[in-house]
Amino acid sequence: MARLIIIAGPVASALSGMAIGMATDWALSQLWWRSPPSPPYTDHGKVRRYATALYDCAPMRIVRLVAAAVMFMVAVQKGPKYWKEFNDHAQLVARSTSNPQIMFKGTLRDGREVMVDDYRDAYFWLRDNTPEDSRVMAWWDYGYQITGIGNRTTIADGNTWNHEHIATLGHALTSPVKDAHRIIRHLADYVLVWAGGGGDDLAKSPHLARISNSVYEGKCPGDPTCRHFGFDSRSGAATPSMQASLLFNLHQHNQRQGVSVDSNRFQEVYMSKYGKVRIFKVMSVSEKSKKWVANPANRNCDAPGSWYCTGNYPPALDWLISQRKNFAQLEDFNVKKDKKSEEYTKQYLSRMAGESPTESAESSAPKQPAPKKEKEVKKDKPAFTKKAAERVEWTNTEDSTQMWQLINDGNIKELQPWLDEKPERALLRSEDGRGPMWWAHEKKDKDIIALLKKVGVRSDLKDAKGKTPKDV
């Protein structure tokens, strides 16, 4: 977003200045009577002459003077206010986009403000404590940071155009520990995960499962949206398939009772000061596969008709790669789709829109008249006071992660009954001081914002950086 602002900002400013300048020039010109020279007498000139005469006649001049006067009055009365608002907003955006994105202020439970520098410290640890040829597996979001700050090879980053490769990464991280290790030992030496709540890897993991399922159909059989991999909408607890996944076990390792990753497969070597980043060493790494990947003769880049690397995988992973389905079969309009692919896309879109499997199947059936419902008694929603909201502890919990996931997915159908069950969930705040209203404003989801307001969530609270929900 910052790069987009830098590129588009000057263009938008120049075009806006031209529009304002032209309007000002027109308004000022109305103070003088200007009689343009008569055009030559042609059919086209005759039309122009009549139009000019109409434009310069006395009644139209009065209309133009009034319009110019109104423009100046509005500019004088409203201009300073709008200019101040625009300037304040521009300064706020400038500060938010220019500040370091991997460091932020946080508030501890005792009220002390601290600078959370976990991410940079973790990348420095990688740089200083791992061999130079180490390969780090992490979700692609952090690839540039691992490479640029940690100076280590990452499995994927923001410029990885190969969707099948991203799906393979997601497949490994969301598979059970034993199955995941069987894949990762041929690809990476370390696994890095973001923890600590909010938008961490555990909250993102349902997206990882869905991306994996778009290429590896066995991940979520019969369910393109992988609803069984995530958080229970009622209790907020992780589903069994999520609890079995590598990502869950690395994220919750020794933090939750009964959760401890197998040290014969993954050994924790680093945990940041505030628990935001955890790094695990992959045990029993295949040296044969590592040497095969390092050999330049085995690299396959510049795919025909494109510029990205299709990539080659170690022969030991042939069994996995053979299971992949080309994602272009689903997304590329130029590729002919089979019936199975069309049905997959149809189900995915309908379920992401909130429809249940039966709803999408029954949508074409003739509709029966709905039975009359008994008049429901409306329950009063709690109006939480500002004082009560400020007393809420800032901490990362399963409920806060579940809340972030529902809002990030725009899943208001599950969010509403979940809040009805326990309205106080609406007051949840993560370690950075943000809660449901901040996340809803980040997504610009008007429906969820309206729901939270109806429940009684306030919009005048501030997070650890002093920002209200509307500021983000």
Strand percentage, roughly? 5-15%
Structural class by sheet pairing and helices: alpha/beta
Uncertain runs with pLDDT below 50, 5 residues or more? 359-383
Over the alpha carbons, how many angstroms does the gyration radius reach? 29 Å
Fold and architecture overview:
The chain is an alpha/beta fold and 472 residues long. Helix content is 48%, strand content 6%. The protein has 20 helices and seven strands. The strands form two sheets. The protein has a five-stranded mixed sheet with strand order 4-3-5-7-6. A two-stranded antiparallel sheet has the order 1-2. Helix 6 crosses helix 7, helix 17 runs parallel beside helix 19 and helix 19 runs antiparallel to helix 20. The longest helix has 41 residues. It is globular.
